[in-house]
Amino acid sequence: MKPTAFFTPMTLIMTMMVQDASAHGRLLVPPHRGYIGKLPQFSGLVPINFSDHGLSGGGIGQTKGGKHGICGDSYSGKRLHETGGEFAKFPQHREKVIGACYAPGSTMDLQVQITANHKGYFEFGLCKLNSRNDMETEDCFKTLVQPNGEKDCQLPAGAKTFNMQGWSALLTGWRRRSSHSGCQGSRGGDARACAR
């Protein structure tokens, strides 16, 4: 399947989320909250997450039953990438980190980098936030369907960067479902990332 998808326009939060993954990848465009501190224009403004390509919801034992942090953090740990978390705000200004701005309904470029391919797929979703203080929730996110009717973007072999297009949103996140977890016969772990 070609990794280009167009989605219906909405002024919402967009998430490309990872489930069942020992994920090694990141959302580059727009930059996810864990990656944004590495960009020159945010140098010294946002903390650097040196493990932004390996966010994990906690592995099989912790993610069973859908228990995971919505933006890539462990369910039982600190929510560093969610609204109000260390990588989601400018510490000195206490304001939300915004890595890119788009006009509602416009087409936006999306760039996903897979640094270690564990097979599987990724998908996109939207979540509407009505105010700057609204929090991301699992119930809020709605999976988007591509024009061909599929919701999953199958991941071709290799570690590479994928360029896609989608409709603009308030928050972009990343979700990838993988067949690798380090255990034979298992379904994998869970990792996600969010960008705003």
Number of domains: 1
Structural class: mainly beta
Low-confidence sequence ranges:
1-22, 168-174, 178-191
Report the helical percentage: under 10%
Radius of gyration: 15 Å
- CATH topology name: Coagulation Factor XIII, Chain A, domain 1
CATH-defined architecture: Distorted Sandwich
**What about the largest sheet?**
7 strands, mixed
Average predicted confidence as pLDDT: 67
Kindly estimate the percentage of residues that lie in beta strands according to DSSP: 15-25%
Q: What's the helix-strand series?
A: EEHEEEEEEEEEE
How many strands? 12
CATH class wording: Mainly Beta
Taking the alpha carbons of the first and last residues, their distance comes to 27 Å
Question: How many separate helices?
Answer: 1
* Mass-distribution shape: globular
Signal peptide: 1-23
Domain Chitin-binding type-4: 67-138
Keywords: Signal
Protein name: Chitin-binding type-4 domain-containing protein
Quick take:
2% of the residues lie in helices and 24% in strands.
Overview of this structure, please?
The protein has one helix spanning about 60-65, and strands at about 15, 25-30, 90, 95, 105-115, 120-125, 125, 140-145, 155, 160-165, 170-175, 190-195. The chain starts with 12 loop residues before the first strand and ends with a strand. By secondary structure, it is mainly β. About 0% of the residues lie in helices and about 25% in strands. It is globular. The longest helix has 4 residues, at about 60-65. Mean pLDDT is about 65; it is low at about 1-20, about 170-175 and about 180-190. The protein is built from one helix and twelve strands; from the N terminus they run ββαββββββββββ. Strands 1, 6, 7, 8, 9, 11 and 12 form a seven-stranded mixed β-sheet that branches. A three-stranded antiparallel β-sheet has the order 2-5-10, with no helix packed on it. It has a single domain, classed as Coagulation Factor XIII, Chain A, domain 1, CATH 2.70.50. Strand 3 (about 90) and strand 4 form a beta hairpin.
